[in-house]
Amino acid sequence: MKGKFFSRLYILILLVILVDCTGKVKDSDGNRYCTLKIGKQVWMTENLNVSTFRNGDSIPEAKSAEEWIKFGRDGKPAWCALENDSVNIIKYGKLYNWYAVNDPRGLAPKGWHIASNDDWTFLINYLGGGVIAAFRMRVTGMEPANDKEKGFAGLPAGARAINGTFYGITSRGFWWTSTEDSETTAWIRMLNYEDCDINFLIYNKGIGLSVRCVKD
């Protein structure tokens, strides 16, 4: 009984650490994001929701499957709203292809960068790896008390395939890393709500995924 009590207390302490929001950061559109210190890193606790690059240039919005396919085929940056519904942006942020992530004009706010493969690996290992990290990164089990008290809040925003279809909403969260694998692929992280696990995968650069930023 005592062992179970201390195990639960330990988990509770860890979750309290996670829900301690430490500040705000503003993107080039003026959107503000809550931030969170995890180990030696400082992460945004929300998915990126910017529609302009750091220099002020607009990022094209793909409003149809045909437009999404064309941007990916041409290797051009683009974003979209989940299921083409702007209401979803409020909760999930925007989905971006990797060409937006890697654009030299800069997708992340000044002083921040798109999380790299190494950034994600450090985070996942620090949070206990595998199932433990997945449990602590997802929303289930650590609902925020208010807008200023959030953990990593890895919402299952799903993804947009290269053919323009949407999938995985409510069951998986997908995030780009800034780390390239090949001319056509890059590394991602997938948080699986169904299996409570987080996976390292390689995806086509034309797919639309969420983005998280880490402080430089």
List descriptors.
216 residues; alpha+beta; three-stranded antiparallel beta sheet; 6 helices; globular
Strand-residue proportion: 25-35%
Mean pLDDT: 87
What is the number of beta strands? 12
Distance between the termini: 44 Å
User: In sequence order, what are the helices and strands, one letter per element?
Assistant: HEEEHEHEHEHHEEEEEE
* Basic shape: globular
Largest sheet: 3 strands, antiparallel
- Provide the number of structural domains: 1
Number of helices: 6
Structural class: alpha+beta
Helix content range of the residues, please?
A: 25-40%
Task: Provide the gyration radius in Å.
Answer: 17 Å
> What is the spatial order of strands in the main beta sheet?
1-2-3
Low-pLDDT ranges: 5-20, 141-150
Describe the secondary-structure layout.
Layout: H1 2-18, E1 23-26, E2 32-38, E3 41-44, H2 65-74, E4 79-80, H3 87-92, E5 95-96, H4 98-101, E6 112-114, H5 117-126, H6 130-137, E7 157-160, E8 166-169, E9 172-180, E10 185-192, E11 197-204, E12 213-215
Antiparallel strand pairs: 1-2, 2-3, 4-5, 6-12, 7-8, 9-10, 10-11
Description:
The chain is of the alpha+beta class and 216 residues long. It has one domain. The protein is built from six helices and twelve strands. A hairpin with a 2-residue loop joins strand 2 and strand 3. The radius of gyration is 17 Å and the shape is globular. The chain starts with a helix and ends with a strand.
